[in-house]
Amino acid sequence: MVMVQFFIVLIFLYIGMRVGGIGVGFAGGAGVLVLGILGAKPGNMPMLVIVFIMVVIIAISAMQEAGGIDYLVRLTERLLRRYPRLLVVTAPISTWLLTMMASTGQVSFACMPVIVGVAKENNIKPTRALALSVSASLLGIVASPISAAVIFFSGILEKNNHGWGYIELISVSIPATFFALLFASFFYLCWDRFKQQDQLNNQPYIKEESIHQEVLPGARRAVLIFIIGLVVVLVYAIVASPKLGIISHPVMNSGQVRIGVMMGVALLIVACCRVNVHKISSTSVFKTGMTSCICILGVAWLGSTFMDNNQQWLQAMVSGYLLHSPWLLALVIMLVSCFLYSQAASTQILFPAALSMGVAPGILVACFPATASLFILPNYPTLLAAVELDDTGSTHLGNKIIDHPFLLPGLITTLLSIAFAFALSLLI
């Protein structure tokens, strides 16, 4: 019966990928229905993770309507145009920083046309910068102090008193992902120049003007309000941490504060930046973010249903291998994550199960960047957007499933992040 259920999960994941978009979530929900008909008890729905994502999407959508996203992209554009020959380095680092701050990869969509434009102006192939930027946006979620994956993972660590918590998690994930991106970016910069394959086929120099509109009056104010909210969430999570004990009996936990602060940030942006609240739901961030919530709902529910109904079998058959091979665990997380469509969904489904099998929390923290392997299959929206926005034709998907230019840079940055995370976890 286990293999039958597993086969059904694979079938509906395949159907979801073929349908694409919000259909991924539809297929996941339908898969749970089929498993239920066969006698499986439906697993827990990832409602808390979805709420975490929703409130951040609401705040960022308000900031976008106020012009804040355009303002941040304008600052990024200035940096990229100032050092065009270092585009392979500055593009992914900028994307990682924006994603880490916003806790959603949706902001990377706005950066991609800038990356392509700067590359064309300087006769550089944009493929490498785009590929590394896609990886950077995925790793930025792992590093974000307010992402749903980080909040959920730190919560289960602190709940079970493993000695690891929010502070330790971000102390590992932020530097590990940053240095991995930095190392990979400089490697590819040197490699492409050594191989002389960074030129855009000697096409004529094309000077392009900024593609962004004028910054709205409330844009800077909206960004400032959002950053203050981010700092409040981060500071509260630190002072309310059981390890520090500054607030011994907090009235609200870190997740509740995150929800309240992000809703308050959205309200302040609407009130202080003259934002039409009725237009927030029409922003691109809101639409794509809520689509992601539906996808996570279906896929994570399908995954948790399979895991919950077969936990004893998995413990008996798999736990022995995973306990003695941390890199095998990281590989399993990478492979499963590329089907689950979300770092938060992967964290909710896999990490509690791994802890119940006896995997050390420090090893799980080191394997946390493995959840960013959504680039393996060429169906993730950020990856597809990079291909579509590169009008030079140098970035394209291959004829086979995994012969695309995002695979190797993504594997290098993810594996380096895991390696750095292992080293940092030993120090902490």
From TrEMBL:
The chain crosses the membrane at residues 6-35, 47-73, 93-118, 130-157, 169-191, 222-239, 259-277, 284-303, 323-342, 349-377, 406-427. GO terms for cellular component: plasma membrane. The keyword Membrane applies. It catalyses: L-aspartate(in) + succinate(out) = L-aspartate(out) + succinate(in); fumarate(in) + succinate(out) = fumarate(out) + succinate(in); (S)-malate(in) + succinate(out) = (S)-malate(out) + succinate(in); fumarate(in) + L-aspartate(out) = fumarate(out) + L-aspartate(in). It is found in: Cell inner membrane. InterPro entries: Anaer_Dcu_memb_transpt. GO terms for molecular function: C4-dicarboxylate transmembrane transporter activity. Pfam families: DcuA_DcuB. Belongs to the DcuA/DcuB transporter (TC 2.A.13.1) family. Responsible for the transport of C4-dicarboxylates. NCBIfam families: Dcu, PRK09412.1. This is C4-dicarboxylate transporter. It comes from Citrobacter youngae ATCC 29220.
